[in-house]
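Task: encode each sequence below as structure tokens.

Item 1
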Amino acid sequence: MVSTGTYQSVLKADLLVRPLVPDDVATVMDIERQGYSHPWTESVFLDCFKDNYRLWAASHGETLVGYAVVAYMVDEAHLLNICVHPGARGKGVGRHILRHVVSTAAHEGMIQLLLEVRASNAMARALYENEGFREIGKRPGYYPAANGREEALVMVLEFGQ
């Protein structure tokens, strides 16, 4: 665990986005549990270390402050999970990771990036819209919630070919 003071100094420097490795999963699980009411399990993360997935870590030195998991399916990329440590939020980390995901997917020949976002997550929705994503549908009852299920908005960013 890194103190909030350490996050302040880390985030003043440039972030490095690098491939996530299995040794990162313990730190990822810590961030995941702090970031989500219904976090992924360790086994779900470990199952994503396959050829058709891209797993990214945002870090500065040894301090991992965020991550993203993307699945590649034929010519589409699907952002499955993106999370930033609570102590590092609001400092551009999520945007930095998202831009890396987008640029890598486009460079690797994907035609679009899809994602689902909780309808109630206004901050994430604003980020995606600001980065050019548009809503293309809804998935009722997609996410588990404290009082049942919550709707997801399906969003897409199409890459110019």
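Item 2
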Amino acid sequence: MPSRTKKFRGYRTHGRGKKSGRGAGIIGGHGQAGLGKTGKIGMLKYDRDHFGRHGFKRPQCMVEANRTINVGELCEQIERFVSMGFASKEGDAYNVNLSDAGIDKLLGNGNVDFAVNVTVAEVSEKARSKIEAVGGSIVE
């Protein structure tokens, strides 16, 4: 018994008429075509939020990332902070005002070799424990 395709060899439309034989015509389209018409029930059942915009996106002029510095980087650049006037040395401890320097948060990566008294808006727990372990303090 010949296959259906072999049976129609030599006939341009393979028994489908003119239009339905082109592309994905007889199956209603490719992909998500027809979600507003033939596939509406499936869309309403399984993907109710398919159409339209959802949520919101803040304007980039309003979004500002925290300026951060690590404990190790602070210790490397302590002399630079002193020369810029954001830090001073009293005895064997440094007093650093990171808020005046434009830094929002102190993070805990790196090592601390000396006592540092830091004034900053936010601090991570790891940074706090490292600074307090060498005799420094944090003022928020």
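Check on item 2: The chain has a mean pLDDT of 90. The chain is about 25% helix and 20% strand.
End of task.
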